[in-house]
Design goal:
Layout (H helix, E strand, L loop, with lengths): L23 E5 L5 E6 L8 H24 L1 H8 L30 E8 L3 H17 L3 E9 L3 E2 L2 E3 L3 H11 L6 E5 L3 E3 L14 E2 L18 E5 H6 L13 H11 L17 E3 L16 H4 L14 E11 L2 E10 L10 E2 L1
Parallel strand pairs: 3-4, 3-7, 4-13
Antiparallel strand pairs: 1-2, 5-6, 6-14, 7-10, 8-11, 9-10, 12-13
Protein name: Beta-1,4-galactosyltransferase
Function: Responsible for the synthesis of complex-type N-linked oligosaccharides in many glycoproteins as well as the carbohydrate moieties of glycolipids.
Family: Belongs to the glycosyltransferase 7 family.
């Protein structure tokens, strides 16, 4: 992983002058009989015990390297020296939370539903679920991850476009009654700073991925990426508008809903990691965003939807599957969204 930091391991008995190629050589007595095998290039005093100890040492060092690699300690050390660490980080086995959260008071009384709108981004999901489960478990936050998978289907020969807001509305309604607040969470945004607060947002919506910290979006009214709300406050806003098919703008409309509901928006303070607070997994070179604006959609995207939302979302859950991704539990909901082409003719690709 870090070729510039690697160097060949030298065993304790090597003097740097051995050039033997054969792995083993034989000693012969004066009559030509072979008596015993010894490693080529090693002093004759080297015993099997020494070899055994050396193997144990090498095995321990290998396990230590693997653990540091997956935990991110090596990556953080490399970044601290100005080195880049190519490729996605490896997922370590997650630290399981207690079997019964309610019996451990240190985990707190609230439970978070992580709602992840999703479609065909499997590489990101394989990193996201274990990372978030470990991150929230270390913070002792009761949680469950819901992957809201929009099922592809054709309507009159046209493919339905992605609708992040409608998926979140559906996920809200399908999430367990044992959860009392939600995280609207992008699958390609991973929190790195342990100081980020994912606790219960009692006083108002809490925008974790604030403009001062998000690696890409820095305008003041931005509330996308990661937003925490109590279920009561989400219902007060009537959820999100279902009219936003394609990528973008649903967050901007939801900001106006928050203000219209009289809620105060909160953001992190005291975070000093700036734009390195999160890791952004999205690669625009090979995963294009659907940014088309069709017909009246250009004008509609700036209008507040005062009628639709959580109370009007139409969908069907095709299946509900409990999965373990890298040892981290989650529930995948295959959701088929309904589109009223009379109201939103831009919901499909012809």
């Amino acid at each position: 992983m870090f070729p510039s930091r690697r160097k060949t391991a030298q065993l304790p008995w090597e003097d740097g002058r051995a050039t033997a190629v054969n792995l083993m050589t034989c000693e012969e007595d004066k009559h030509g009989h072979r008596s015993r095998l010894i490693p080529s290039g090693l002093p004759r005093k080297c015993s099997v015990f020494h070899l055994f100890v050396a193997c144990l040492l090498l095995g321990f060092l290998s396990l230590l390297w693997l653990q540091l690699s997956c935990s991110g300690d090596v990556a953080r050390a490399a970044r601290g020296q100005g080195q880049e660490t190519p490729g996605p980080s490896r997922a370590c086995p997650p630290e399981p939370p207690p079997e019964h959260w309610e019996e451990d008071e240190s985990w707190g009384p609230h439970r978070l539903a992580v709602l992840v709108p999703f479609r065909e981004r499997f590489e990101e999901l394989l990193v996201f679920v274990p990372h978030m489960h470990r991150f929230l478990s270390r913070k002792k936050i009761q949680h469950h991850i819901y992957v809201l998978n929009q099922v592809d289907h054709f309507s009159l020969g046209a493919l339905h476009r992605f609708n992040r807001a409608a998926l979140i509305n559906a996920g809200f309604l399908e999430s367990s009654n044992s959860t009392d607040y939600i995280a609207m969470h992008d699958v390609d945004l991973l929190p790195l700073n342990e100081e980020l607060d994912y606790g219960f947002p009692e006083t108002g919506p809490f925008h974790v991925a604030s403009p001062e910290l998000h690696p890409l979006y820095h305008y003041k009214t931005y509330v996308g990426g990661i937003l925490l709300l109590s279920k009561q406050h989400y219902q007060l806003c009537n959820g999100m508008s279902n009219r936003f098919w394609g990528w973008g703008r649903e967050d901007d409309e939801f900001y106006r809903r928050i203000k219209g509901a009289g809620l105060q928006l909160f953001r992190p303070s005291g975070i000093t990691t700036g734009y390195k607070t999160f890791r952004h997994l999205h690669d625009p070179a090979w995963r294009k965003r659907d940014q088309k604006r069709i017909a009246a959609q250009k004008q509609e995207q700036f209008r507040v939807d005062r009628e639709g939302g959580l109370s009007t979302v139409k969908y069907r859950v095709d299946s509900r599957t409990a999965l373990s991704v890298g040892g981290a539990p989650c529930t995948v909901l295959n959701i088929m969204l309904d589109c009223d082409k009379a109201a939103t003719p831009w919901c499909t690709f012809s």
